[in-house]
Amino acid sequence: MYMKKILLFLASLVIISLFFVNANKAWGSSLPAPAPYNENDTSTTGILFGQEHSYSVVFRANGEAVVTARLILHNSSDKPINEASFQVSGATSQEMAVYQQILPQRCTKQTYDEKARAYTCQLLTDPDYSTTAYGNYYNYDYGNSSAQAETYYSKAVISQTGELYRITIPKPIDANKSGALIVSYIAKGYVKRSIGDLFTFEFKTLQVPERIKKIRVAVNVDSDLAIRGGQSSVNYNFDFFGVSQGGSISTPIADPSLNRAVSYIGTQGALLKTASELSPNETFSVKGEYAKSGWRLYAGSVIWFIIVVVLIFLIIYFGQKLFARKKSATFITESSGSATSIPLSQAMPMPSAESDKDSSIKLFSLRNNVAGFISVVLVILMTWFLNSSLFNTMTHLLGNQVGGLLLVLGVILIGLIYIFCIFGPATIVASKHGWRAFIAVMISVVFWLIIGMVLATVLFGSGAVSSGTLNYETP
Predict the structure, then answer these.
(1) pLDDT tier at 328 (50, 70, 90 boundaries)?
(2) DSSP at 354
């Protein structure tokens, strides 16, 4: 009998853990896309000058990281700059490719020609690399005759010394102007592999000898992998490395597919981290975990969840025992001049049905806490079912075949089921042990809901292992 109860209890814990695992995936995948950089946003503009970096990192099952970065360079000097440098930290790199992104001028003033039925540009200004990094800026008609202004990519010359790269900028950046470099490489060393194909990563941004005004990192994994905190959102497929091998240094490239891929850098990912005002040679680290399956990714969290819940029940059980001992009474009888102590259960008559009613609100009653735990399990199972693909399919099919009245009745039925899940166990216990038991069970429901939310946040949330930290690297 006790074995059946233990098995049922453990099964309930596994079901709750499964809910948190699936809920964590759902919450991660339903998060809205981050807002693009806003040129009017002054929240991260503590320094007037400095580079601006965006990174998209895709981790693979072999431990490699495919990194694509967009580095915005601001020339605040009075001379053109034709060189840049950076260093790869925390990993070894290969297949390094660097392109200079050359944006067309913007039309800031235009007029409409009635006869030609077209806009004509009256004033062209320099491109703003900062505010157009994440917009649909590319291949836009600026009114320059009938041709569209195109974005070009010029392959840069790279010289390497260890992990230090020096870049010769194809088109020098004039004084008080801006430019952008597109960097792509494969890195090994960011990932540590554990038993059961659990991967722990720590990605570090490029180390540069200048200040960085803003930095943004988007982390993804291949589509067949699971990452803690969400799901992979890789939605572009462009072979940067194919371009690097086939491109010519003397011939710039104009490719709409490359434009789209560049526009996604640093904007979409399962993990998104930002930082600002980095000092020279300071890097930004992003940590996290991914695995080949969701169960392996959250196995440790599930085990810890079960351990914590079991410990809570043990505390309640022994607390009830201790409380019962203190409340137990003994009756003293005199026999032959000596005092004899006999237990209350032997001195009292057999209890009546009325004596089964609780005389107080027993918060440490194992019975009440088990009932409250069952109530929470039922609520979680009902919520999981309503968010499942099976329920969505059922509602879609029924919605096309039944009338509005039946749908209303269905909503009412779901509400009644929820009421039973919340109050049913408490009502069943109260039918035998009185209204005080009902209150105790409902307090237990609130207690277990709080415990569940805390454990879900600590053990299953993306913040459990993912973080972003600043590190000063030795030049």
Answers:
(1) low
(2) G
Number of neighbouring beta carbons within 10 Å of residue 183 = 26
Number of CB atoms found within 10 A of residue 279's CB: 12
399 phi and psi angles, rounded to 5 deg = -65, -25
Write out pLDDT tens, residues 189-209. 999 988 878 899 999 999 999
What the block records as the tokens of 368 is 């009440």
- What are the C-alpha distances in Å from 429 to residues 378, 421, 443? 16, 13, 13
* Cα gap 132→120, rounded to integer Å: 22
DSSP 456: I
Enter the DSSP assignment of 427: H
Helix (H, G, I), strand (E, B) or coil at 281: coil
Of 410, 362, 402, which is closest to residue 386 (Cα–Cα)? 410
Domain architecture of the chain: domains with CATH:
2-25+303-462 (no CATH), 48-292 (2.60.40)
Which pTM was predicted?
0.67
Measure Cα distances from 113 to 22, 141, 373 in Å: 58, 15, 73
pLDDT at 278: 92
Please check whether residue 212 is in contact with residue 278, taking contact to mean a CB–CB distance below 8 angstroms.
Answer: yes
In Å, how far are 52, 274, 276 from 38, measured between CA atoms?
13, 14, 14
* Helix, coil or strand: residue 141: coil
Q: How far apart are CA 271 and CA 230, in angstroms?
A: 7
H or E, element range at 261: helix 256-263
